Amino acid sequence: xxxxxxxxxxxxxxxxxxxxxxxxxxxxxxxxxxxxxxxxxxxxxxxxxxxxxxxxxxxxxxxxxxxxxxxxxxxxxxxxxxxxxxxxxxxxxxxxxxxxxxxxxxxxxxxxxxxxxxxxxxxxxxxxxxxxxxxxxxxxxxxxxxxxxxxxxxxxxxxxxxxxxxxxxxxxxxxxxxxxxxxxxxxxxxxxxxxxxxxxxxxxxxxxxxxxxxxxxxxxxxxxxxxxxxxxxxxxxxxxxxxxxxxxxxxxxxxxxxxxxxxxxxxxxxxxxxxx
Length: 276
Prior knowledge:
Layout: E1 5-11, H1 16-28, E2 33-37, H2 42-50, H3 58-61, E3 62-66, H4 72-85, E4 91-98, H5 114-135, E5 164-169, H6 185-208, E6 213-219, E7 222-223, H7 233-237, E8 241-242, H8 244-257, E9 266-268
Parallel strand pairs: 1-2, 1-4, 2-3, 4-5, 5-6, 6-9, 7-8
């Protein structure tokens, strides 16, 4: 039986942590990397991904597609295209980061808006659910012969050894157990849903892929991005804010370092488990 070849996915990837993850994978792995963006100018996006990235062959390994997680048609279109490029008879999705997210920080229940809360749930919770629906077909099955990093197969270098990992982006404030401050109603609830999605989908993977694939939820840390602008001042003073590069490196390290008995759980960027 021929070994199945790996590829990686970052969705979305046009800025912030997603952009940093894509550039890190292009630099530190050898397999193809798929990045999704909402913009339609793929050539401009490619220039941003590859800017000052001195990696031989990165241009050929990078595949960019238009995806809006609130528009299922774009996910269907992209999954169809990926099926042609990475047929499951020869390839499998080894490492995936599904990381859509928006934030409406309602401090009081009276500040909750139906429309903005609905948008938060459509992006933060339904978005990852639809990503799982359409991208999970590329994960290995029980019978898949997975390549491993050794002297004869450098294509698996830097990826999870012998199994696939699909990581959903949750947040520490999504932990019900850890909720000490309240507020941020729609964001907290949507991220709590993400942690549940990771656990539920991992249960399905136990049946379809056994020890060939797992799903986990990850917290990226408090990261210095446009996403946290105006919300991270207290963390800045405490020295608890990290850069997108630091977050990306840490998230890849956590995802690729998990053992099968750690499946279905929720971890922060340092690899510490967060209670749901």
